[in-house]
Amino acid sequence: METANNWIEIIAKKDARIAELEMLVKFYEEQFRLSKHRQFGPSSEKGTLPGQLGLFDEVEKEADLQKTEPELEKIAYTRRKRIVATLRLVRGGGVETVEHTLPEEERVCPECGGMLHEMGHDTRRELVIIPPQVKVVEHKRAVLSCRNCEKNGDHVPIVKAEMPKPLISGSLASPSAVAHIITQKYVQHIPLLGQGRVVKRQGVRLSRQTMANWVIRCSEDWLLPIYERMKAIF
């Protein structure tokens, strides 16, 4: 059973990796198509309605990397999950067990008054979807100095604690927020406009332009080097 569970876990990781690579390939295929479109004129692709933004065109249209990101703009993300109840999901872990027992004072036989013992369990399973959490993480770095040097008037060394570097310098973007936006757009096919409306209903304002900037910057800074490395290897 342990060996079977290990194989299931390995297969699940492989499936997740394949999905990531497929998304990356799809992204750069569409980038290539857009490049050809800009080079040779209007696209004759069927099924595109006049005035309708393509899945990838929206990012390039909305992005403005020169514009300063609003400081007070809050980050939020939502996720529409497709429920896939499979045997692999159940056997692969992530199962939380909730025990329902009788208190001691109720473990009395209604016939003879003797103590009841536990003879087994009735079990049922349900799939629980936990909505994504939206929160702001404030990174507070300690700055230290020497009191002795301060008193003596000598050179006072300043030492700062290590702190994770931001995903995008000067931005509120976090890895989880950008990953969610990219997944929603390129896997769930939810345009940035739709994502903005979803978070707006939750009281959070996140503009299409900001989301587009995040996608473009992270694609160039993080995904493109991975793609180039993969292309060199394979």
UniProtKB/TrEMBL annotation:
Residue intervals of the Transposase IS66 zinc-finger binding domain: 106-150
InterPro entries membership: Transposase-related, Transposase_IS66_central, Transposase_TnpC_homeodom, Znf_dom_IS66
Domain of life where this protein originates: Bacteria
Domain Transposase TnpC homeodomain residues, every copy: 28-80
Domain spans labelled Transposase IS66 central: 171-232
PANTHER family per the UniProt record, alphabetical: BLL1576 PROTEIN
Protein name: Transposase
Source organism (scientific name): Desulforamulus hydrothermalis Lam5 = DSM 18033
